[in-house]
Design a protein that fits this description.
Layout: E1 2-4, H1 10-17, E2 28-30, E3 36-38, E4 53-54, E5 57-58, E6 67-69, H2 73-76, H3 83-99, H4 110-113, H5 127-132, H6 150-157, H7 165-176, H8 187-197
Parallel strand pairs: 1-6, 2-6
Antiparallel strand pairs: 2-3, 4-5
Helix pairs in contact: 6-8, 7-8
Length: 208
């Protein structure tokens, strides 16, 4: 699960993540220059996801590896992620995937699993570039006119279905349609939804 730190500096973020009083933590932090810091062993739980849901599963702190990526975020001057940082994130993700059975559709952003609360890592994050290097998914082409409504397609991808549609669409767009983040289900958004949904198997009925 990928996050941005949303703080003014990497040092401030690491200090907070190491502070027991903050009651937040992550397994890794990746600085803008590509330096990687391990704060929690992968086999231990870190408190990075909060109230979360993906593909029928809840409480994702119990089943995820959290990577905090240094960026001031939308509150403090959101900016593109440097190439060195993205390369380090990609290498780290590939290492984690080699150690654990992580499916491509389970490489997620914080905004995917908590769309009513979070925006990170946001629309400037290079999900397409990661997918090109074997981390996560990116549709190669649009699937044509969507045959299902947005609520069906969003649920098929893995988003929870009990939130307002604009909230869910905004989260989807931050991840898979960053060129237009407006929470509207126009024809282009629906086509992208269909293309992503076509790449992902059905949510397992035993998920919980």
């Amino acid at each position: 699960m990928l996050h941005y730190t949303g703080m003014r500096s990497g040092r401030a973020a690491i200090e907070r993540l190491r502070d027991p009083a903050a009651k937040v933590s992550s397994h890794y932090v990746v600085e803008e220059d590509g330096a990687v810091f391990r704060l929690v062993a992968e086999e231990r739980r870190a408190w990075h996801a909060g109230i979360s849901h993906w593909r029928g599963r809840r409480g994702l702190n119990d089943r995820s590896v959290g990577i905090e990526i240094v960026n001031p975020g939308h509150e403090f001057g959101y900016r593109p992620f440097p190439a060195l940082q993205m390369a380090a994130v990609c290498d780290l993700c590939l290492e984690i995937i080699a150690r654990h059975p992580v499916a491509p559709w389970d490489v997620v952003g914080h905004s995917d699993v908590a769309p009513d609360r979070k925006q990170d890592p946001g629309e400037l994050f290079d999900w397409e570039g990661l997918a090109a290097n074997g981390v996560g998914l990116w549709p190669a082409a649009e699937a044509g006119p969507a045959e299902a409504g947005p609520e069906v397609l969003l649920a098929a991808i893995g988003y929870r279905g009990d939130l307002p549609m604009p909230v869910l669409l905004t989260a989807f767009q931050r991840r898979w349609r960053p060129e237009r983040v407006d929470g509207l289900a126009d024809a282009g958004c629906l086509a992208r939804l269909a293309a992503v949904a076509a790449m992902i198997p059905p949510v397992p009925p035993e998920a919980g």
